[in-house]
Design a protein that fits this description.
15 helices, mainly alpha
């Protein structure tokens, strides 16, 4: 989930970089740790990622800079296309030569087609990339058509998305389809409000305003997160992956808290420069690493916490060398 691509590299916000690191590690925990919290309380990572992504994309929406729009789409589309294609080829070669592979079966062309269309088939984590690409295109088109009033139209989309969620229309119409189709399509309506929240926070300068009352903002944001985690203050609804308004409020509070921090220590900043790199690439490949490492290490197969750490470190190393070998080509987007 590559959020850094939308951030001005000359003015990197290292508290947000730290948040990206923590959220990326949280993703690995959710997928590779047997005791990870699978209920709604444990799912703030994806909402926060989506909020961050569109918070920083709003500058481009306002200016409608075609070059930057193209750059963003390239950065998120190249991994979306090339990683599943690579996995399709490598899986089938291994299966034909040795009788085993990452997916323990030969993938057919239809598997690749479904993966590239919906992002959820054999490399299922790319449902997020699918929705990120789709919402980027949708929001861009709306901002071009409506220009100064695009933020109002985004709010209408948010309202519509919550109506679809709370009426269970998405479940009713999409549940009969296979998971490779219904998960991605159904989750569009669940992730769209997070994207709108990110754009809205930036459009109205809410984070800048809250910095003037940092103490109160941190107190209330922390209190809201505590109440969400401790008590059932929101009605939980059924859905696909991230239903309900609770996750949006929690994601906004987490993003707000980290946005209000600032790092002054130069040594700490230098450390953050190193450890916060490649979070996008780590997201792209962590399940690939898990599939192979579980054949070697029992603690990875058993989904122990030490396995999560090993997966993250190995993924980081692969992305480091992948980025170096890619030089200045667009293949670097596979690892950044």
């Amino acid at each position: 989930m590559n959020i850094r691509n939308t951030i001005n590299k000359k003015k990197i916000n290292y508290n947000i970089e730290l948040l990206r690191l923590l959220l990326s590690f949280w993703v690995v925990i959710q997928h590779c740790y047997r005791k990870s919290n699978k209920n709604l309380k444990g799912l703030f990572h994806v909402p926060t990622f989506m909020i961050m992504s569109f918070f920083y994309y709003n500058n481009i929406l306002k200016t409608r800079d075609i070059i930057k729009i193209e750059q963003r789409l390239q950065r998120i589309s190249i991994p979306y296309i090339l990683w599943p294609t690579f996995l399709f080829i490598s899986n089938n070669i291994l299966f034909l030569l040795f009788g085993f592979s990452q997916y323990n079966k030969k993938l057919i062309l239809n598997d690749l087609v479904l993966q590239l269309i919906f992002g959820f088939n054999y490399h299922y984590i790319f449902y997020f990339q699918f929705i990120l690409i789709l919402l980027t295109i949708l929001f861009t088109i709306i901002s071009i058509i409506f220009k100064g009033s695009y933020i109002f139209n985004f709010q209408l989309l948010l309202i519509l998305a919550y109506i679809i969620q709370y009426s269970y229309w998405s479940l009713y119409f999409l549940k009969p389809y296979p998971d490779s189709i219904n998960i991605s399509l159904g989750t569009i309506f669940e992730l769209l409000p997070f994207a709108v929240a990110g754009v809205t926070l930036h459009y109205f300068g809410l984070i800048t305003t809250l910095k003037k009352i940092k103490g109160l903002a941190l107190f209330f944001s922390g209190t809201i997160i505590y109440l969400i985690l401790k008590f059932n203050i929101f009605t939980r609804i059924q859905g696909f992956l991230f239903p309900g308004i609770m996750l949006n409020i929690g994601g906004i509070c987490i993003f707000t808290i980290f946005s209000l921090f600032s790092f002054q220590n130069e040594n700490l900043v230098e450390i953050l420069k190193i450890i916060t790199k490649y979070t996008g690439g780590i997201y792209y490949i962590h399940m690939i690493c898990y599939s192979f490492l579980k054949q070697i290490f029992f603690f990875v197969e058993a989904k122990m916490f030490i396995g999560v750490i090993i997966i993250y470190i190995i993924s980081y190393i692969i992305c480091y060398f992948g980025n170096k070998l890619s030089y200045q080509t667009k293949f670097k987007f596979l690892f950044n």
